[in-house]
Every structure is written in structure tokens, then in C-alpha cells.
């Protein structure tokens, strides 16, 4: 019998990269007739449907520009919308030690614009073979449906998959479905490393 092989499945936001929408709101506000503080609430009705794949990139950009009364071009809006991320260097260092020994996949509630931007701008994503994203799966965490899609599409066995995410609701669903799961906090990276290390030990892999 082939020994079970471990898989790492990771969320993106506040795990692999930190993000701050207020940066984008401030930059947008320079081109909008509305105050910064409440600006992105104008997108509340379209942001969810966009991340769930009910609206494509082009429609979202068009609708967002309209809702914000943004006075720049579509390209300018897309740039501002995407430049909100900072790579988690501690996580990058840890994952580079695992790369090549454990297959890694992504599971994220995200949009097409952000996913494409992230994967082409941050080295940390080079560690990952592929992933499942809410906008293309047309469902999102914490619902079981996206975990089922992930298991199916990536051929995962939850029993040998370590899932990391920063939101307790996502962790709860993953655990209920049999994944080993760790609730990540940026300021407690050592706790993640310890949990990952002890899990890898059970497959005779040392971190
Ligand atoms: Mg997250």
C-alpha cells in the first residue's frame, strides 16, 4: 500500500498576503466626489456577487466606476483596486522550506482581478500548483459546497490535507469535513509553524 501523502491547502487573504482596502479607498477618493470613509460601502451590493462569479471583471469595473462616480479610466480603477496587498514574508519563508516536498493548493474567496494580480505579482504563489477560487467555483467559504468542489477538483483526501485560513467559520467547516485545520493569525506565525511541523512529523517529514 502506498503511504498517504500530505497536502497543504491555503487561504490567501490575511494568510499569504495582508490586504488593506482603505489604501484603495483613499486613492479612489481623490477621483470621486464622495468622502473616503463611506466610499466603498457604495460597492456593497456588487462586491459579493462579483466574488461569487455572478458578475464578470468587466461588468464589475463598469458598475464600480458608476457607483463611485470615479473620474478616472477603467485601467486606473483596476490598478487602484488591486494595489492593496502586502506579501507575508514569514509565511513565504516557511512555505519555501516545504516547497517540493508537499503539494500546495489555494482555496480563496476572491475575484478574477485579484487572483490574476496576486499570482503574477507575488513570489509566494510560485509554491502553489493550482487552486479553487470563489469567483470561478461560483460558491464561497464557509459553505461546504466550495470545499466539496475543492476535494473533487484537486483530488484531495481531507484526512491528509492541512488547511490554513484566518477565519474561524472557514476552519469550522473544514474541520467538520475532516480536514486538519489551523486558524492563522499574522502576529502568531510561530503557532502555525509549530502546528504544520507537528502535522508533517506524522508523515515523517521534518520542517
Ligand atoms: Mg483570509
Give an overview of the whole structure:
The protein has 207 residues and is an alpha/beta fold. It contains eleven helices and seven strands. It folds into two domains: 7-18 and 86-201, 3-Layer(aba) Sandwich (Rossmann fold), CATH 3.40.50.1000; 21-82, DNA polymerase, domain 1. Strands 5-4-1-6-7 form a five-stranded parallel beta sheet, sandwiched between helices. The radius of gyration is 18 Å and the shape is elongated. The structure holds magnesium ion. Magnesium ion binds at residues 11, 13-15, 165-167.
How are the secondary structure elements laid out?
Layout: E1 7-10, E2 17-19, H1 21-29, H2 36-39, H3 44-51, H4 57-68, H5 74-82, E3 85-87, H6 89-98, E4 104-108, H7 112-121, E5 130-133, H8 134-137, H9 144-154, E6 161-165, H10 168-176, E7 180-183, H11 189-201
Parallel strand pairs: 1-4, 1-6, 4-5, 6-7
Antiparallel strand pairs: 2-3
Helix pairs in contact: 1-5
The structure holds magnesium ion.
Residues 11, 13-15, 165-167 line the site of magnesium ion.
Provide tags for this entry.
about 15% strand, 7 strands, binds magnesium ion, Rossmann fold, alpha/beta, about 50% helix, DNA polymerase, domain 1, about 210 residues, five-stranded parallel sheet, two-stranded antiparallel ribbon
Quote the beta fraction. Answer: 5-15%
* Count of separate structural domains: 2
Structural class: alpha/beta
**What small molecules are bound in this structure?**
magnesium ion
The arrangement of helices and strands along the chain is: EEHHHHHEHEHEHHEHEH
Total helix count? Answer: 11
Amino acid at each position: 500500500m502506498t503511504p498517504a501523502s500530505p497536502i497543504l491547502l491555503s487561504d490567501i487573504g490575511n494568510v499569504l498576503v495582508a490586504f488593506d482596502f482603505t489604501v484603495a479607498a483613499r486613492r479612489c477618493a481623490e477621483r470621486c466626489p464622495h468622502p473616503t470613509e463611506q466610499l466603498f460601502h457604495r460597492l456593497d451590493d456588487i462586491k459579493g456577487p462579483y466574488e461569487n462569479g455572478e458578475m464578470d471583471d468587466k461588468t464589475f469595473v463598469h458598475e464600480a466606476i458608476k457607483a463611485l462616480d470615479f473620474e478616472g479610466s477603467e485601467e486606473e480603477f483596476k490598478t487602484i483596486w488591486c494595489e492593496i496587498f502586502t506579501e507575508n514574508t514569514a509565511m513565504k519563508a516557511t512555505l519555501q522550506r516545504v516547497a517540493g516536498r508537499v503539494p500546495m493548493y489555494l482555496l480563496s474567496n476572491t475575484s478574477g482581478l485579484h487572483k490574476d494580480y496576486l499570482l503574477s505579482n507575488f513570489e509566494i504563489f510560485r509554491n502553489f500548483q493550482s487552486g479553487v477560487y470563489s469567483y470561478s467555483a461560483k460558491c464561497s467559504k464557509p459553505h461546504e459546497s466550495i470545499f466539496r468542489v475543492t476535494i473533487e477538483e484537486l483530488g484531495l483526501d481531507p484526512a491528509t490535507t492541512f488547511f490554513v485560513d484566518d477565519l474561524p467559520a472557514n476552519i469550522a467547516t473544514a474541520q467538520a469535513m475532516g480536514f486538519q485545520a489551523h486558524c492563522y493569525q499574522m502576529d502568531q506565525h510561530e503557532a502555525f509553524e509549530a502546528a504544520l511541523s507537528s502535522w508533517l512529523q506524522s508523515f515523517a517529514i521534518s520542517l
